Amino acid sequence: MLKHKNNHQEQKKHMQPKPHKTKRFQSLLQTLLCYRGMSTIRVPETEPSAVEDCRKLKKAFKGWGTDERAAIRILGCRNAKQRSTISRTYQQLYNESLVEALESELSGDFGKAMIMLAMEPSERDAKLAREAVKRYGEDRYACVLVEVACASSPEHLVAVRRCYCSLFGASLEEDVGYLFCKEQPLAMLMMSLVSSYRYENGECEDDELAKSEAAALRGAIVSKQVEQDGVIQIVATRNKDQLKATFRHYKQAYGTNFDEDIRSCGGNKRYTTLLQEAIWCLETPEKHFAKVIRDSIVGLGTDEDSLTRAIVTRADIDMVKIKEEYIRAYKTTVEDDVIGDTSGYYKEILLTLLGSDNM
């Protein structure tokens, strides 16, 4: 027994991390522990008081200048639920909207990012959708409508539609239908996406249905008819687990991915682009948002609106996976690209949301 105990102690001693690696390991561990699911927002272990956060924000806004870093330390380090509580509490304490306070104190891309953080997610996305409706002629704004419709939960989309109607006195579905009415079958695709409700009741996917619909999708590819109603119906109505099963069977049966095969069909380029983005948002949103971030940075100038939208809207949801996909696809990190392409407090809030140590 004594010998066994000594051997066990020797094993433990052997397994101790080397001193020069301990600090690095602890830093990585701390980072991972700060994540909530796939979020990169570093929320304090002890939940802060919303009242105290509001007082600090109010203090940051007082005087001739604004303490931007104090605002970043609060709004950039609270999850969506905590930020919602802060916004309500601020209104109660000071009879003033936090969003309006931020609008009066901050400006530029930094101000836009902070204001988006202070909004309820449904209000934020309703306003993003409204802006996309106004500028739908540009593909990057049509893409926003796809994100709103496909990249979050069915309940969130319902909340966005309700908020859109309340804020703008109009129906998101009708506005989208009107905008694309001269672009069939794109109109049917976009209308179907923004008006859908994908029932996610926890049931296992239907394997036979997945095989059948994989075959139907293959038929559309072979006949170069991805614009047909059957394709739209599958993509716009099936829940995410069912769609993933269908795309998995497609890959197994035909050796390629459906989203990649779409490009070989020709036809309406805008339709195939938005259909592919819808599939990515439904099946692998990290792939879509990694591309949005990359496209916003490469080339001449920076598309700050797209960069802000992608990081602010996904930091609470799946930014860990997006960062992993970004490294895989582009052989660099989101943080490095943000550091190289942004500056000032705007850079600081983005890096804070990314959970970066490079501050």
UniProtKB/TrEMBL annotation:
Pfam families: Annexin
Gene Ontology cellular-component annotations: cytoplasm; plasma membrane
A single GO BP: response to cold
Source organism superkingdom: Eukaryota
Keywords associated with the record: Annexin, Calcium, Calcium/phospholipid-binding, Repeat
Region called Disordered, residue ranges: 1-23
Annotated PROSITE patterns: ANNEXIN_1, ANNEXIN_2
Start-end of Basic residues biased regions: 14-23
Gene Ontology molecular functions: calcium ion binding; calcium-dependent phospholipid binding; phosphatidylserine binding
Family designation: Belongs to the annexin family.
The record's note on its domains: A pair of annexin repeats may form one binding site for calcium and phospholipid.
This protein's name: Annexin
Organism per entry: Acorus gramineus (Dwarf sweet flag)
